[in-house]
Design goal:
Length: 413
């Protein structure tokens, strides 16, 4: 079955060059495990701008010492698809087969690794999930014709987008339009600025709107995350919730907040191991609308240097956002160099350890509280600098900071 499909696709190059060229961007020799030599040479002829009719292919191959009969090539050319649809289906089948082969090879590798005495299960799983993601990301789709894109875009204009996650802070939403599927949003700040609290507000707002959220909390426990959400909802002092020093009125207010929060669809993991697989499972089982990672520098992957680690993890998170069509909010530490500057307001170059973070991000939000450095400044004021916005404006958002309940709000006018 596989060989007959391979022959049909290669036949198109010799008999129907228009069909072949329409799918050329999707065709490579690795898709032809049985006819790989012939596919390699025909692709080489294509890349060299040569004609690929049977006689030209025969001349090309014999010049390179490949034993083949012209009559065999002529016979093969007769098996060419006769329409764009049948050609597309044949190439789709080659991609499907290639993915199946890759899955089988991964399965064999997993079996071998699982039998190694010194291998750690977590390491095997991490590599396997990454490999599965790579296989899944192999797109069998070729370039899309602009007219089709234009029609889709025009049909969507005037309709409210369904993949937008609002932050709950109107001034942020006014600049960003909310977070959209496929975006990677980086929130950068120095320690203790409140980036986790800002993210908790995003999570609470999304969950209150009926969205499903996955939080990978690498710094705080799941219980501590719950405390923060309850403090945000009830506006009760976070320290009193954490130490259980609550009055009767506070307990009642907290109970009311819990009654609201119990409807939230929030999934919390205290590790980022297998983040790709976890998110895909949630997306498949009941949908997923927002992913939050707290924070990037606490993640880990194998690489030769820390900069390469950060670059790889940033790239993988961006790919996750695109593959699943959900916004991924990534918290990130900023460089210590800020502390040595007279002006400590953060800037894009302060993103720690890798320029890949800035490159991969669709939106970069830099959080700053002047009162952290100046005790005489208003301790309730904060700034969120929209340092990068791939498809919109940048600017500065003034926020209010409620330290007792670790909450950011629109600044009071």
């Amino acid at each position: 079955m596989s060989e007959s499909i391979e022959i049909r696709v290669l036949a198109a190059a010799m008999a129907e060059p228009g069909l072949w060229l329409a799918q050329a961007a999707r065709i490579n020799p690795d898709l032809f495990p049985i006819q790989k030599q012939l596919a390699t040479e025909i692709c080489a002829m294509r890349d060299a701008g040569k004609e690929t009719d049977p006689r030209s292919v025969y001349t090309w191959l014999t010049d390179r010492g490949a034993p083949i009969k012209l009559s065999d090539l002529m016979s093969m050319a007769d098996q060419s698809p006769l329409s764009i649809d049948s050609m597309t289906q044949a190439v789709d089948a080659l991609h499907e087969n290639a993915k199946r082969v890759a899955v089988r090879q991964l399965g064999n590798w997993l079996t071998k690794q699982a039998r190694e005495p010194g291998a750690r299960a977590d390491d095997i799983l991490r590599q396997a999930i990454g490999a599965l993601s790579d296989i899944s990301a192999r797109s069998s789709a070729g370039p899309e014709e602009f007219n089709m894109i234009l029609q889709r875009v025009m049909n969507s204009i005037g309709k409210p987008p369904t993949d937008v996650v609002k932050t709950g802070i109107s001034t942020i939403d006014a600049i960003t339009g909310g977070f959209r599927g496929g975006q990677m949003i980086v929130v950068g700040a120095r320690p203790s600025m409140g980036k986790t609290s800002l993210a908790m507000g995003f999570i609470r707002q999304a969950a209150a709107a009926g969205k499903t959220v996955a939080l990978f909390s690498l710094e705080m426990s799941a219980d501590q995350v719950c405390h923060r959400i309850l403090a945000d909802l009830s506006q009760i002092n976070l320290a009193r919730i954490s130490t259980h020093h609550l009055s009767g009125n506070e307990i009642r207010a907290l109970t009311n907040a819990a009654n609201v929060a119990h409807r939230y669809k929030i999934f919390i993991a205290e590790t980022a191991v297998g983040i790709d697989g976890v998110c895909r499972q949630l997306k498949h089982q009941g949908g997923l609308d927002l992913v939050v990672v707290d924070y990037l520098q606490l993640m880990d992957c194998r690489a030769e240097s820390r900069e390469q680690q950060i670059s790889t993890m940033s790239r993988n998170l961006k790919r996750l956002a695109r593959d699943l069509g959900v916004p991924v909010v990534v918290l990130s530490q900023l460089n210590r160099q800020i502390e040595q500057r007279a002006n400590k307001r953060p800037q894009l170059s302060d993103l720690r350890e890798s320029g890949a973070i800035e490159q991969d991000a669709d939106i970069v939000l830099l959080l700053w509280r002047p009162g952290y450095y100046d005790t005489e400044a208003d301790q309730t004021e904060a700034e969120l600098i929209v340092g990068k916005h791939r498809n919109g404006p940048t600017g500065l958002v003034e926020l209010g900071w409620q330290a007792d309940c670790a909450r950011f709000v629109d600044k009071a006018k």
